[in-house]
Model the fold of this input.
Amino acid sequence: MKDPRIEKLADLLVNYSVAVKPGEKVEIRSTPQGEPLFLAVYKKVLQAGGHPLTRVTPNGLNEIFYKYASDEQLKYIHKPTRVVYEEYDVVINVMAEENTKALSSIDPHKMVIASQARRELSTLFMERAARKELKWTLTLFPTQASAQEAEMSLAEYEDFVYNACMPDQEDPVGYWQGVFTKQQSIVEWLADKEVIHVKGPGTDLTLNVKGRTFINCACKENVPDGEIFTGPVEDSVNGHVTFSYPAIYSGKEVTNVRLVFENGKAVKASSDKNEDFLVKTLDTDEGARYVGEFAIGTNEGIQQFTREILFDEKIGGSFHMALGASYPESGGKNESAIHWDMICDLRDGGEILADGQLLYKNGKFVI
Done:
């Protein structure tokens, strides 16, 4: 029997998150594991009057690509891919992993080459999204692989995913509209602030947000959601940070990441596991060692680490930073082929101050 929550999630994605309009060109991406939600989304796009283009990536395809592609092939961008980034109105991505460790043994240098080649497209994507020319949303369909990563049974993980995406399954849109209203008061309080100071275990960090915009995230681009973020002034980040949870990028898990910043740049980077991958990725390009995003997670329904950044960066009581590309709508100007989110738990003694005023303590807003 088909899980009725799949249909509800598809409706939330198509009719609220990206609000597909008649005549819009829509690309839908997934893998064979995501078929139930993929098909439900496809149907909803048709019912909304959109023109869906489907892209299903077979299992093992990326592993084969990185293993056998030459440098020239790693850099090559197909014209149909460019057309989507340049001309399409909507992109819906349904993540569904068969094997979350499939790329663990791939040479990180090959990933860097491919990322560098796609930097232009990544920048174009973000710029079009900032201008409201391109709507996009990203979600996850629960699979055995993701459940194992989260150390749950599949049934437990399904409940976790759907409850995070739709805490009120009778009125998911109304719920997220309420989240937007609550978060907007925090965004407005921060509007005229300049200096952010974050303190926590192994962390003492300052950054400037003067002239930058905090974005209120309430289930438009990310499903689930629950965060406010901005792009800090590029040369303003100073201090050190120790990230509480493993930082995962392209299937590689890097544990106990420690960064030291001077005038915006991560001048020192170390970790307990996969340090070579960490350093090589941060050397992808000039912008990779600068912070493109500073964010506070607000989703109280997500309290545990699951090794899936879509959920983990929203953990209520945490903050995260992304090394690399900024989102232009925040006013951030950093450009890079990477955007790597790393998360720090502030629930045990952490605090955030804005212009010396206490904003956040022990994982809770205090204003």
About this structure: The longest helix spans residues 172-190. The chain is about 35% helix and 25% strand. The mean pLDDT is 95. The CA atoms of residues 60 and 102 lie 7 Å apart.
